[in-house]
Structures are given as C-alpha cells and as structure tokens.
Design a protein that fits this description.
six-stranded antiparallel beta sheet; 7 helices; 260 residues; three-stranded antiparallel beta sheet; 11 strands; single chain; alpha+beta
C-alpha cells in the first residue's frame, strides 16, 4: 500500500500528503509544496529564537521581604510538577512569538477542606500556586470593565483513564473566571458528555474530534462555584492574564516572516 511504501522509503516519498494531479502545472505543484513546508519552517525558526533568548540563565533580584525559599521555588517548581522558571519562559516566549496571544494562569491545587484540615503545616506549605501557559486557542472569551478583566472563559479537554489503562477518554471542560457583584473572584466549571477524540494538543487544546454534541443544553455545572482566597481573603482579580499586558488583538510577531 501507499502507506507501507512511504514507511519503507521515507526519503523518496517526502511529499506523499501534498495534493497532486497529473494535470497540475509545475508552478502549481511548487506552490503547494512551499505551503506544506511553511508551518514546519516557521515553527522551527520560532524554537531557534526561543532557544537563543534563553541560552543563559535569567538574572533577577528578589525583594528581601519574600520568603527564603522563593528563589528555590522559582528555579525548581515555578510551573508546578517540578517545572522551572526557565521552562515556563520557554513555553511562554514560543507561544508569544507564534500567536502574540500567550495567556498565563496562576492556578492552584484542588484540595478538599477535609484533606486540608488533616494536613500538617509542612504538608500545607508544599501545596502552592503555580503558573501555567495557556495557548491562544484555549482562551475563548473575555470581558473587561475599563482596563480590568472581569470575566475570562477557557476551554480544554481533560484526560481521564478511569475507563481503562489503554483507552483514555476526554472530557470537554469550560471554565469561567469572573468577579461577582462584590468584586470577589468566582470560578465555575462546566462539562458535557465525554467525546471521543482523535488528537489533543498541548495544554488540552483540541486538534480533531469525533462524536459529542454542540447543544448548549448538554453543558452542566461541575461542582459548586469556587471562591479562591489568599491569606484568608477572597481574591479581587482574575489570576489569568495576557502575557503582553493587553487583550487587544495583535498581529503575531512572526507574521512578517510568514507573509514572505
């Protein structure tokens, strides 16, 4: 078959997936070939730029008022799950170069009140907020009042292995971050019936899906509204913001290269 032939002779069949017709002019074929190579070239160039910017460790000075372990947290666990500040910067710069739409979420561990009350002080100290890079396509809506974000909505596909070790399922999840009438932060998750996915990209972004429903009636609240606090007080701002500092739509930094 063509697939087996391509696997056996990868150097001969590099352009197997390009549209081709015997009546296609050479110029037409060259155009399709260049278009097919463009995404890979731009992606590689963006990665080279990112690597060049981070070839040395970042230099920073921390205020003396911060806890003594702040530097260790930055260098080893800034993004959670032992993700360093440099790894976070790498993902953020790459997203900003390619979309100019990088969003940063200061997330927090999900811990029940019972589990928190049962922890020792040392165990509580090990559960800290962490920063996550959200790709542009994952932030689907936002609303501002003046220059302040008052609502941000994200959408992602969360993986679950509950049904078996070899066949994960994915849950379609929409999360609303909003400020209520008192100015306090509220977080509400909505889910719908699990859909069968063919591919899920970085950060839970959907690449291709089969099944499921787009009917709004299928969305159901998942759990109660969460009201995050810090030092015993409710947060009064949304811990999700564009890295550039502006929600205005901007042309990607690499668009000039793409247009060439």
């Amino acid at each position: 078959s063509a697939a087996r032939n391509h696997d056996s002779h990868p150097d001969v069949n590099k352009n197997l997936l390009l549209p081709f017709s015997p009546r296609m002019a050479p110029e037409h074929y060259e155009f399709f070939k260049k278009e097919g190579e463009l995404p890979g070239l731009v992606s590689s160039y963006a990665k080279v730029l990112t690597g060049g910017l981070l070839r040395k460790q970042p230099q920073y000075t921390l205020p003396e008022s911060l806890p003594a372990d702040t530097k260790d947290w930055l260098e080893k666990d800034f993004g959670g799950e032992s993700t360093s500040f440099v790894s976070f910067l790498s993902a953020a710069i790459l997203e900003e170069l390619t979309t100019s739409r990088c969003w940063v979420l200061v997330d927090f561990p999900s811990i029940s009140v019972e589990a928190w009350d049962a922890m020792t002080d040392a165990e509580r100290a090990s559960h800290r907020p962490y920063c996550v890079v959200l790709p542009a396509e994952q932030v689907i809506n936002w609303r501002t009042r003046g220059k302040k974000l008052v609502k941000v909505t994200t959408r992602a596909y969360e993986e679950s292995w509950a049904e078996g070790a070899h066949h994960p399922s994915y849950e379609d999840v929409v999360t609303d971050y909003y400020l209520d009438n008192t100015g306090g932060l509220c977080v509400q998750r909505y889910t719908r019936e699990t859909i069968e996915l063919a591919a899920v990209g970085p950060g839970g972004s959907l690449q291709r899906a089969e099944g499921g429903s787009s009917d709004r009636k299928d969305w159901k609240p998942s759990g109660a509204v969460v009201t995050p606090t810090m030092h015993g007080k409710r947060l009064d701002r949304i811990p999700l913001f564009p890295l550039s500092g502006s929600v205005e739509v901007e042309e990607p930094i690499l668009q000039v290269l793409i247009d060439r």
